[in-house]
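Reproducibility note. Readers wishing to regenerate the assembly model reported in the main text can use the exact inputs given here. Chain order matters: entities are listed in the order in which they were concatenated for prediction.
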Amino acid sequence: MSDTTLDGPVLAADGTPLKRSLARALRRQKLRALMLIAPLLIFILVTFIMPVADMLFRSVENGIVEDTLPRTVVALADWDADSGELPSEAVFAAMAADLKDAAEAKTHTKVGSRLNYENPGISSLFRKTGRRAKKFDIEADGPWKEQLIDINDGWGEREVWRTIQTYSPTYTAGYYLNAVDMQVGTDGAEMRPEDERIYMLLLKRTLWMSLLITFSCILLGYPVAWILANLPMRQANLLMILVLLPFWTSLLVRTSAWKILLQQQGVINDILVWIGLVADDNRLVMINNQFGTIVAMTHILLPFMILPMYSVMQTIPPSYLRAAKSLGATDWTAFWRVYFPQTVPGIGAGSILVFILAIGYYITPALVGGTTGTFISNRIAFHISTSLNWGLAAALGAILLAVVLALYWAYDKIVGIDNVKLG
Amino acid sequence: MADAASNDGFVVFDRVQKSYDGVNLVVKDLNLSIAQGEFLTMLGPSGSGKTTCLMMLAGFETATHGDIRLDGRPINNIPPHKRGIGMVFQNYALFPHMTVAENLAFPLEVRKLGKSEREAKVKRALEMVQMGEFGGRRPAQLSGGQQQRIALARALVFEPELVLMDEPLGALDKQLREHMQFEITRLAHELGITTVYVTHDQTEALTMSDNVAVFDDGRIQQLAPPAQLYEKPENSFVAQFIGENNTLEGVVTELNGDTCVVRLDDGEELDATPVNVSKVGERTKVSIRPERVEFNKDRLHADAHLLKAEVMEFIYMGDVFRTRLRVAGNDEFIIKSRNAPDQVRLEPGSQIEIGWLPQDCRALDA
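Running the prediction on these inputs yields the following structure tokens for the assembly.
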């Protein structure tokens, strides 16, 4: 029912429209609420939203070439890389001038490293030429084509100039192409050679292993959650402590414990050899591979599966199962038709939690993954801390983010996000 | 006390005992026989063992000792889903992820009935509880009373011969509850099914049942039709538990056939019917219903014993007057009188004399 009369909106006692009057009355309340959440809001903005936005920006940003080599970029714009000829003397002169400035500002190595990601070898070309560039006399010396090629043969290669031309715009899709094992070839984007592809393989492996981990968590967690939900309070609390115990132990310690258990001279192999199931010279390889990663990560992520399932199961009264049985259902039918469908929201919540945690997991695959069990996150970490190719790391991270969002969307379409219950 | 169960009942409990912890008996030596088509109510305070009995009958609890027979065959070792007993639960237990029609079809599906037969039966069951148009709804979209009807229809849809109901009306408001009491009894009698109904609400028990079994302390205290239960309670517990009741304590001084005289602790004497007393000198609790107390001497026998009473409080309740008296040191003595034009309204503080017909006052166990 609305209080709107035929004459127009309802007025408050002082003649202002009721809606505006209400908004004014609530404004103070809203402001106070905003003030209360402001610290957290600012914290999240500074520590989460902004870094994510910065990362997304870095994955396409490429200002360094244009900033460091402004004259070259302009001169090179007209050059046709497929003409089979080197750029004109003007381009070389522009490069010499840019290099002189860059060497004085000590930025020539940075642009060298940037271009080196795309065409290995350019880094040393820039470094070596840069050492001489400070002494360049742009007006007097020349011609620059011979001069530069004389300093380093690299300047005589068309591929070097093609790379500089391709990566001269301020924004580039190069990092993303690289992140999906592609490169800019003569006819635009193309797949990298077979032996240079790595990221798609890693991404597929990450998704596949995360799925396996999620499923093993469901299989192992469901009965535990069921027992937890059906035990008397005292025993349930005790069992709950056991479930939570891993949370209170350092991640590193737990992962290392798996190393001790699973390695070839480890506890499990020793026992298998002792009872004669495995020959001493043929011990099982259970660590530094996919198996080890799946075992260790299932163990670590299991509580995240059990807790949502438990809290959902707790709300299902035992009378449903009794009702089903009194209506003639066998134990299995009663479970499968009546109990299980009601636990799906818990399974969904647990699965999303475990899958998303698994997909971005880093420490455990790094420690027990070996070469076949590493995740894409390990590669991202490598580019952030070792190769310093932050743009590529950002592109990989952005792709990972997109994949998670896409899966989340698909989950919402198939199961419905309203069906997810954390408690 | 309940007699040893006869063996010809439709449902028979034969010396059934139940213990959960091996130390205490929750159900002690239960003997009960329920005839086909009977509406039996198990009434008692919480913890009296009535729900345990129902659960043993349904198969969710096993009897520690004794036999439960259904239609002549022992069912102790038959799992619940093979007993074919319909059950209505306290919170209805309608499956929330299924529609009303799916809920009703569930017992038919697990019995592997064909689709058309299922649909016909579901339709008939829904019409039986006047919920024909609600088949496509989810239980959460129904009101409490509607859910109750659906739960009832689901328990009846597979045509069981025995239906158990565990406090099914507990969650409804008073008006709806009274309406559903009527509906349930009507359906039970129309369909001729045997019903075992558990409740702690004595009004429900009295208005719905053919027979009421009053439970306390793991035993049946009395098994009788409602009128008999109210008017002729066999022991103090039943007298106290069913309806409003006044209790006075004393010693039997005279015992002549079907009347006796009891001297109260303050020396006053009253007339009573001996029920649980066998000899002079025995202590007893006498029980008298508030509406059977008479303070108009003309309506009593000339030689009836009278008790002195002081009016403590007069409560106007519309249809009746409720007056609280102090009798023989007990100031919770209640009398009820009908609101009639000539009815006396007793003034608080006034001294009166009360009495009753010997058959209305029962001398029970102390």
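We highlight two features of this model. The beta strands of chain A are 182-185, 188-191. Chain A touches chain B at residues 317, 319-320, 322-331, 333-334, 337-338, 341-342 (CB under 8 Å).
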